[in-house]
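Blinded run. Sample ID left blank on purpose so nobody reads anything into the name before looking at the predicted structure. Input follows.
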Amino acid sequence: MLDPKVRRHLLRPLRSRRDRRTDSQAYLKALANLDKRALGEDLLRQIRTVLAPEKRDKSKRTWKNPARARELVDLAKALYASRRISTQQYVFYASSPVEDIHEANIFDGVYDSELRPINNALDAIKKKYGLGPDEYWYRGDAPDEYARLEIEYESILERKFLEALEEFGLADLVRLRKENAKEFDRLRERGRRTVFHSNELILAIRDVVLRYEDEAKEAAKIGAYSAAIICLGAGIEGLLLLRCLRSKKKAGQISQTLLKRVRPRSPDDPTTWTFETLIEVCLKAGWLPPVETSLARYNVSALAHNLRLMRNYVHPGRQAREQPWSEADKRDYQDANSIYVVLLSILGRVSTDKEVGNSNSLSGKG
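Blinded prediction complete.
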């Protein structure tokens, strides 16, 4: 029998922290981050106290009121600091009041000293080419001199908007917009959808599934195969959920015929079902037919369960109990990805207007 000391040495962690000083620095950094969160909570309480009386004062709600815009920006900052809203929501909530002030400035002629000469020059060019006041060229058809002036006009508006963001204390958004305007717009649009399209469940789930697909690929590129497999498993769960939502009534009826162990408590709400329940419902409904090749006939529901079990190794206890000392590798990821691709081809994507609503509803400010 091995000496206890020898045994402990042999079973020491295979991956050890090499630099204990880094750990102490990380600890202090973590505490500082939590302090910011706590300060955000305190700031949020203070702002709510200030804003509460003004809920009854409609005169202060006008979109042209800079004081009200500043309060909304401060509220967005506090909500973000206290982790009550996501980064995407913060970008939208913080920038929207400033956008209103910026648009009011355009409407009220605040920028006319810089914009009017350009407008006059644009009108002169249109008149020169025989276009009326309400006529315009198609995109790409305008004369070069007109296109250059349009770019100059837009650059002035962009500069004024950045100045407005700076004025309202949003230097972080100014930096983001300068460095990556596309990312700013992407984050803002996601934040906008959380407000105006929160009830479009199928579209939201599709977005989640696509995000998991992308994250699985990115994780696999750097050899983070466990993370990639977990994302693929979550993606499959999303695909099964979408299929059940497409035939919600039928799925709900079938769910009540399952064994008690997997029977859902809320048959009318597939979003609350477990991964296992979703697989069993789709199998019973005939939505997971077998797949045949020249070599074999594959049970698709069994493949789904296989990926589900791989995904469940996200739980340390299960991993240590069932696969101790093992690591997910490239081969495991390739198996998981193959299962994902097969199920994706069978379950397909929701695409009809009846299922996802009019896609045009996702355009515009809200």
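Unblinding after everyone has recorded impressions. Residues 349-366 have pLDDT under 50 and may be disordered.
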